[in-house]
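Q: Structure tokens for this one, please.
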Amino acid sequence: MKRSLLLGAALVCVAPILFAQRRLPPMFSESPVTMTGAVVQVMVMNPESLLIFNVSSAGPGEEVVRWQAILPSQQVLRSCFGWNKTSIKAGDVILVTGHAARSGAPLINLLEMDSELVASSGQTLFSGASGIGLRRGAPCITPRPVAPGPSSPAR
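A: Here is the predicted structure, written as tokens:
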């Protein structure tokens, strides 16, 4: 009995150390990159949206690389930036500024403060600076107005 009690107490003390969350190295570069491309597909969903676009290299042979950009959820895009089904569509030319994956994969993060998505017309479709703290809950989402209820009778 004493042995099992001692073993149980030791397990309770050691378990947090064994199952502690390990800090992962940063997945994206610290400095932003800018690229121009043509939209292939937009997937507006929760918890994050995805923008797929082709970027052509400026050189002989013009290699085309398909990139993916991480955007905030559909609720944030709609409430904070006014996105709808026609805001951005396949074939639109865009200018993307964000943090590329350190691994070299064609993945760019637009959830950071210095990220931006601009249409060829010059209209800013998304700006990380205007959605401060997107990872911690977007403050730009305004609560829906509450419908006035029946007034309470005077006493």
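A few notes: Residues 132-138, 141-149 have pLDDT under 50 and may be disordered. The two ends are 68 Å apart (CA to CA).
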